[in-house]
Amino acid sequence: MRKNSIKNTRVNGEVQRVLAEIIRGGIKDPRISPLTSVVAVEVSPDLKTCKAWISVLGDEESGKKTMEGLKSASGYLKNQLAKEINLRNTPEITFILDQSIAYGVNMSKLIDEVTGNNRGEE
Q: Which of 28, 38, 62, 113 pairs with 56 at a CA distance of 20 to 30 A?
């Protein structure tokens, strides 16, 4: 299976959907923020590993705590993923904190400040 094949794209989408459902409703760890979302998932072509980009709305501390909680729950997540999706191999999940949404919000605020200041001076 090639990395950008249709099958791989479908597997990525399905794993992302199921992983988001499990994180939203299946984990009772208080460290995991309720404002956690799975931004993207990339499953390797041999279905052995999986990278999941996670976005957490909030401060940096809640992001760190959420990542700790997800890493400690990775065995449970893999088990639930195996029950939900029928794959030949259930991938080992690696979580990566995605800060692109927070970066975009911050840049938007900065742009608003600059354009707001320029309007006041004219």
A: 113
With tokens 């409703």, the residue in question is: 25
**Total domains, the chain:** 1
Judge whether 4 and 50 are in contact, CB under 8 Å.
no
Decide if 89 contacts 46 (C-beta within 8 A): yes
User: Do residues 101 and 39 make contact, with C-beta atoms less than 8 angstroms apart?
Assistant: yes
Crossing angle between the packed helical segments 60-72 and 74-84, to the nearest 10 degrees: 60
Model-level pTM?
A: 0.77
CA gap 44, 55 in Å, rounded: 21
Secondary structure, 3-state, 42-77? EECCCCCEEEEEEEECCCHHHHHHHHHHHHHCHHHH
Confidence of residue 42 (pLDDT cuts 50, 70, 90): very high
User: Residue 49: what pLDDT?
Assistant: 93
pLDDT band, very low/low/confident/very high, at 33 (cuts 50, 70, 90)? confident
Q: What's 55's domain CATH number?
A: 3.30.300.20
Here the tokens at position 56 are 């957490």
